[in-house]
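Dear colleague,

Thank you for sharing your sequence with our group. We've completed the structure prediction you requested, and as agreed, I am returning the results in plain text so they can be pasted directly into your records. Please verify that the sequence below matches your submission; if there's any discrepancy, let me know and we will rerun it promptly.
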Amino acid sequence: MSRALLRLETPEYGLPFERSPEAVRRKSLGRFEQGLARCESNITESGEKEIIRHMRLSWDRLRPALEASPAGSWPADSEEIQSFRELHEQIESLVAVNEEGLITTEQETRRVARVMRGAMTLSALSALAALALFAIVSANRIANPVTEVSDRLHRALNPDPGSGPVPDRRGVDEIARLRSELEDLQERLRLHEDEQNRQLSHLQTRLAFVMNKVLEGMVLLDADLHIVSANRIGRTILRLAGDAGGALGDLDLSDDVRRVLAPVMDGAFQPERDLGEFGYRVGDEERVYRPRVLTVPRLDGGVEGYLLLFWDVTEQRRFEASRRRFISMLSHQLKTPMTSLSMSVNLLREKLSGTGDDRDELLSIASEACHNLSTLVSDLIEASRDMTPDLSLKPRRVDLVRLLNAALRPLVPQAEEKGIDFRLPAPDQTAYADVDPVKFPWVVINIAGNALRYTPRGGRIEVDVRAAANGLEVAVSDTGAGIEPENLESIFQPYVSTDREPEPGTHGLGLAIAREIVEAHGGGIEAGGEPGRGASFQIRLPANPERKP
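Please find the predicted structure tokens below.
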């Protein structure tokens, strides 16, 4: 701005050789204007704004004159010359103000720099102190747990009080101490693992010995029915050579074994169910086996594999054959005296007919009982002929109320003799059902006979026939000794008696046979009651609505 102002004030100042005064004047006007505009847009120091404002006023007065006429044509005391002087003074003032601002800024910068250096030095010292404190605290916090773990390991590995207290090792490298204790623990674990492996090997040897000595065959299969292990009998039945395995379906099985194991190989078997029976010669003896499959579960609920058991039922079959021979012999021996007894009772009935109501009734009961016993003996003879006897029924449509009243008449005199109120079904009601007229009454007679045995004098026994949801129900209840809750199901098992001292002639078979007869009729039987408050039995029979009486 100062150079441009001098060129405008003195045209010869700095005039280039190749340019004209007019060109210099136009260029100087533009440069001064640009410089003044930059100063107006960049005010940074105090007082600078006022100086620039006066410069703008002075320049606005001088510029029209400079554009109208060239410099050097004004008198020395003219207003234009005065404006030039003011502009020079204002430019110098502006420079002075900026120089003073630069000096002040530099001094402030140096002061701030000194303060920052001091703050950084203090911060560095504080950081070093904090780091040292943190290192000490952290070392203690790390070392104390390590030391505590080492002490606990030492006490755990040396539980014997005679080993002495934990040694004081302060100042010793805690990590090295922990490492020593861990190495000791690792050694003890190795010794314990060796001992466990030795015991496991011993147990496996004894288990293999036991498995090879039992008469049952055992074969362990995986989920894909590949053989994992087998005992001696299992390998013999499956014709395995040594410890050879393979898939069950690929083995060279005998025809009987393959027939029985076909559901296993086809995946159609039911776990815990017998697969049938087959005979197999083991050594010099013919044995009978009944295979069964047990599921080996996984922890997540899936199937790990299967255990194929070949139960040896040879002795059971021999016992059943002996029992059939005994029943056959006994039934044939009973047939002749039962025929003679029936004929004698019928002759007495014919001879004494009309001599008294009580005699007639007793002879009628005796005649009917002989007929029923003859029928049972005949059934025993027929059953003994079958290799696998089952309970055969001859059901027909009968009035159940009338049938039970007739069957229970022999128990009435016994109840009267003991002073027991024996209540039979009302004779005026009817309830028709398809039952075996010989075997089904025996069920109710057996239950009522047990009630007579366990009901004290003055008690009550009641037999009732009523309609149920899906058929008929025969209920027998008493006020006798009752049944323990845990025995309500076991009393239907063969050879089970709840008496501490069973009476002579009782074998625990009555209720087991009763259940078989009821289930053969398609029904069910349940027991209830409490100790000291009597017992109750409910016999359910299915309905046959399409049959008419």
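Summary note from our side: The two ends are 140 Å apart (CA to CA).

Kind regards,
the structure core
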